[in-house]
Protein 1
Amino acid sequence: MSDEPSKVPQHVAVIMDGNGRWAKARGWPRLKGHQEGAKSLRAILRACRDHGVKYLTVYAFSSENWIRPKAEVSGLMSLLKTFLRKQEFELHENKVRLRMIGQMADLPGAVQQELQRVMAATAHYPDHHLILALSYGSRAEITAACRQIARKAKAGTLDPEKITDATVAQHLYLPDVPDPDLLIRTSGEMRISNFLLWQISYAELYVTPVLWPDFREPEFAAALADYAGRHRRFGDIK
Ligand code: FPP
C-alpha cells in the first residue's frame, strides 16, 4: 500500500435514497421522485468521468424492494428500461462499460434483454464502469459465494484449509472490481441496508441529508472533497 493513496476515489458506491420523500414533499407521486432520481444518476455518472472516478456502483433496486406496491415496482422497472435506452449513446460516447450485480433472473424479461444487450455492447470498454445493483442483496451474494466454495471443497478441487478472504472475494459477483473507496448515502439515514457488506470493509462513509433527486454534481464534488481530506489507515496506526 502506498503512503500517499490517491485523493480521488477509484470506486464510489452510492445508496440513492430519498426519491419518495422528495416527491411527497411536493405532493407528487413517488414515481416522479424516481424519475428525477434517474436524472441525478445521469449527472453523477458524468461527474465521475469529469473527476476521474473509474467505478460507480449504485443501489438501484434491492432484493427487498420487490415488496413495494406493484405499481411502484413496475414503474421502476420501466424507468430502468428507459434509462438504459436513453443512456446507451452516452455510455458509448464516454466509453463506459455497463455491468450489473444481483439476481438478473428476478427482473422482467424485457429488462433482462435490454440489460444484456447494453452490457454486451459496452463490454469492451476497459476504463470506466457503471455497475447497477438490481435485485441485489449482499447477504445473498455472500451466501452464493459460500455455496460455490463449499461445492468445490466437496468435489475436492479446493482445500478448506487454503480458503482465505481472497477466496471469498473471488466468488462474489464481480471479482475483478476493486472494493469501493467511498460509500455515499443520501437522505440522511445511517444504514448500510444490505449493500456490499463484504466490499465496503475499508470504505470511507459519507452520509448527506440531501435527497437523491437533489444530489447533483456540486453535491458529488463536496463528497469527493470530504473524501480527499480523510486519512485512510486500513487498520494501521500511521
Ligand atoms: C430509494 O428511494 C430509491 C430506490 C428504491 C430506487 C432507486 C432508483 C432510482 C434512483 C431511479 C433511477 C435508477 C434507475 C437505474 C432506473 P426511496 O423510494 O426509498 O425513497 P424514500 O426513502 O424517500 O421513500
Note: The first helix runs from residue 19 to 25.
Protein 2
Amino acid sequence: MKRIAVLVSGGGTNLQALIDAIKNNYITEGYIEIVFSNKKDAYGLERAIKSGIKTMFLDPKEFKSREEYDEYLSGKMNSFNIDLICLAGYMRILTEKFLDKFKGKIMNIHPALLPSFGGPGMYGLNVHKAVIESGVKITGCTVHFVNKGVDTGPIIIQKCVAVDDNDTPETLQKKILEYEHKAYPEAVKLFTENRLKIVDKRVRII
Ligand code: GAR
C-alpha cells in the first residue's frame, strides 16, 4: 500500500476527488496518510478532517526561509514514510533540495494543457484568462511529475476541454475542474499500481 501526502492551499476539490476515489475503491493500492497546508483556513483541511484523515498546518511565518520550511516538511514526509506527494492547489514553489529528495515522487495538477499556459504566475484564473486571450480552441488539464522547473515535469495524463466563444475564465475553470477530478485519481491509481515509468521526459504507462 502506497502512503500518500496531499499538499493543499485552498478549496481542495482535487483532494476530495482523491478521497472519493479511495473510498469508492477506484484507488485500492494507496491511501492518504496526511494532508498538509501552508494556509490555516484552507478548506482542504476541513475536507480531510471530515474524512478522518490526519492534517497539519505549517505556518510559513514560523520559519526563517523557504529552505527551512521545506526541510521541516521533508522531515515530516520521511517520518510518515510517504511514497507519493500530491500537490493539489498547493500555491508554493518547492525548493530544489526538497525536489531532489523526492524525485519522481511528486505530482501536480495544472489547469491547462502543458507546456502551454504554465510557468510562474500561471495559477487559478490567470491560466484561464490567458487561454481565452490567446484564442486557442482547446484547453484542458495536465497531471505531471514535478521537476525543478515550474510546470515542466514529465506529463502523466492530459484531458482536453473545448473553449467555447462565450466562455469566461470562470466557466472554463468550472468545466476543467470536472476533468481534473477524473485525471488526478487516474494518475494516482497508476502510480500506486507501479504502472508509471519515467523515461527521459516521457511517462510510459506500463
Ligand atoms: C486547480 O484548478 C488546480 O489545477 C490549480 O489550482 C486549483 C486548485 O483547486 N492549480 C494550479 O493552478 C497550479 N499552477 P482545488 O483546491 O479545488 O483542488
Note: The chain has two domains: 1-102, 108-206.
